[in-house]
Amino acid sequence: MLYRALFWLVLRHLPAETAHHLGFGLMRALLWVPGARALTRFLLGARDPALRLRVFGRELPSPLGLAAGFDKDGKGPAALAALGFGAIEVGTITAQPQPGNPKPRMFRLPRDRALINRLGFNNQGAEIAARRLARRPAVPLLGLNIGKTKVVPEDGALADYAASAERLAPLADYLVVNVSSPNTPGLRDLQAVDKLRPLLAHVRATLDRASPERRVPLLVKIAPDLADDDIDAVADLALELGLDGIIATNTTIARTGLATPADEVAALGAGGLSGAPLTARALDVLRRLRARTGGRLVLVAAGGITSADDAWARIRAGATLVQGYTGFVYGGPLWPRRIHRGLSRLVAASGGTLADAIGADAPIG
Questions:
Q1: Full domain range(s) for residue 147
Q2: In which band, very low, low, confident or very high, does the pLDDT at 11 lie, cut at 50, 70 and 90?
Q3: pLDDT (mean) for 123-142
Q4: Does the residue 46 lie in any domain?
Q5: Most buried of the four, 105, 116, 240, 292, by CB within 10 Å?
Q6: Could you give the number of structural domains in the chain?
Q7: Residue 175 located in a structural domain
Q8: Do the beta carbons of residue 94 and residue 125 sit within 8 Å?
Q9: Residue 91 pairs with which residues in a beta bridge?
Q10: Catalytic center residues
């Protein structure tokens, strides 16, 4: 209730990006002392043994993760984990530092519990992120999400992604190749299988070379706007190349089914839409991936997860991990605890375990 009052009285009157930096900075300041983080984790963290699971060789307290985009430079993963997230995905990180697109570039649609952003991978670059993360924050599962530097042409994409992968490999519990943001010109073209195959193969080889003693799991993040046949093609490619997982999905360029008037939405301009309006499509993509891969990959669900019921539906559709971002922005620091409490009730009511629920609603065979 306190966060909701703060949001409606203060934060919603600030530009969305300003409010984000203010809120995240305050969170990091309050949880800078390890003792404060430990106390917060004790009070807010997932403690129900029924929610525990093992992913990529690590034990997690829950399947709830924070999606890439919230902490682009690895400034506060330990503080975010203290709020109860079982996994933190940092990024998107590019090989070279870049400022992103001109401001304003992030907007709220409160009636839809949604955001539009055209941030454009604003970050300090792989080298600074690596130095910061070398201190190994106390995070159960740390994912690093990499993208293409904007000024790098398409024919330089392999080397650009590989530069980030090589620098970040020793620090990542898993690494994500992001080819699905709508805010870097031409990036989504890399989702085409003929371009994606050499890119993923090159990043896989780079990870193996940079981390010879520990295999770094590799995932790819896809857009909800892909045609169904293209989703199948990416799933087949992931299996062919021995990828470890797929994240479904990134933001959408669609603007359908919104409560916000169309003229107001149009006035905000281009960008990726996230939040509740993405729920149905992101779930459909996940179901298609599960049907195509048959449980042979770790599927990570993102897009429109705002409640425990949303998370539970993704888990039963085949997701091992679920990620929030916009739901966290609107829900505040107690949002993970509410998701955990809801999931605990749903697992108990199912009569099984969280592991039993993964893919329980997926077709067999």
A1: 2-357
A2: low
A3: 92
A4: yes
A5: 116
A6: 1
A7: yes
A8: yes
A9: 145
A10: 181
Helix (H), strand (E), coil (C) string for the chain: CHHHHHHHHCHHHCCHHHHHHHHHHHHHHHCCCHHHHHHHHHHHCCCCHHHCEEECCEEECCCEEECCCCCCCCCCHHHHHHCCCCEEEEEEECCCCECCCCCCCEEEEHHHCEEEECCCCCECCHHHHHHHHCCCCCCCCEEEEECCCCCCCHHHHHHHHHHHHHHHHHHCCEEEEECCCCCCCCHHHHHCHHHHHHHHHHHHHHHHHHCCCCCCCEEEEECCCCCHHHHHHHHHHHHHHCCCEEEECCCECCCCCCCCCHHHHHHHCCCEEEEHHHHHHHHHHHHHHHHHHCCCCEEEECCCCCCHHHHHHHHHHCCCEEEECHHHHHHCCCHHHHHHHHHHHHHHHHCCCHHHHCCCCCCCC
Question: Residues 181, 272: contact at Cβ < 8 Å?
Answer: yes
Per residue in 52-68, pLDDT (tens digit) is 999 999 999 999 999 99
364 lies in a domain?
A: no
Digit-coded pLDDT (tens) for 244-282:
999 999 999 999 999 999 999 999 999 999 999 999 999
365, part of any domain:
no
Residues written for the chain = 365
Give yes or no for a contact between 177 and 135, defined as CB atoms under 8 angstroms apart.
no
Q: Quick check: 2 pLDDT over 50?
A: no
The CATH number given to whatever domain includes residue 265 is 3.20.20.70
